[in-house]
Amino acid sequence: MPYKDKPIEKKYFTIGEVAKDLGVATSLIRFWETQFDFIKPKKNNKGNRKYTQDDLKKIKLVYHLVKEKGFTLQGAQDHIKGSSNSIQDKTDMIASLRKIKGFLEDMKGQLR
């Protein structure tokens, strides 16, 4: 009997999938890799990037700082380096807040 409680999580994502998820061009993701040394996706023999969940969290943190908060690239780099919290903690918090926001927006829609 298959388990229905836990959905299968994808282990690797292509650069196209990452870019589509964020609504940005693939070239921007590649550019951020050159600017932020902690973004290092694995590459296969052909050189195609394979992003893990951890890579996605890091890219989403950069996206949040640069696109949503308006940081410059240098400002985002400084913020990440100077922060006492780990990148993982920040990205987890951002993801949790987005889920809460979505839940609250759904509730608001149902009340109308």
Account of the 3D structure:
It contains 5 helices and 2 strands; from the N terminus they run H-H-E-E-H-H-H. With 112 residues, it is mainly alpha-helical. It has one domain: Multidrug-efflux Transporter Regulator, Chain: A, Domain 2, CATH 1.10.1660. It has a two-stranded antiparallel ribbon. A hairpin with a 5-residue loop joins strand 1 and strand 2 (49-50). Helix 1 (15-22) packs across helix 2 (26-35) and helix 3 packs across helix 5. The chain is globular. The model has no long low-confidence stretch (mean pLDDT 87).
Q: Give the CATH class.
A: Mainly Alpha
The total count of helices amounts to 5
Overall pLDDT:
87
CATH hierarchy: architecture: Orthogonal Bundle
Give the DSSP E fraction (strand runs of 2 or more residues).
under 5%
Strand order of the largest sheet: 1-2
The fold-level CATH name is Multidrug-efflux Transporter Regulator, Chain: A, Domain 2
- Structural class of the secondary structure composition? mainly alpha
Weakly predicted, low-confidence segments: none
Main sheet overview: 2 strands, antiparallel
Number of domains: 1
Query: H/E order of the elements?
Result: HHEEHHH
Q: Roughly what percent helix?
A: 55-70%
Shape call: globular
Termini separation comes to 41 Å
Radius of gyration, in angstroms, nearest whole number: 16 Å
Record field, number of beta strands: 2
Provide a concise account of the structure shown.
With 112 residues, the chain is mainly alpha-helical.
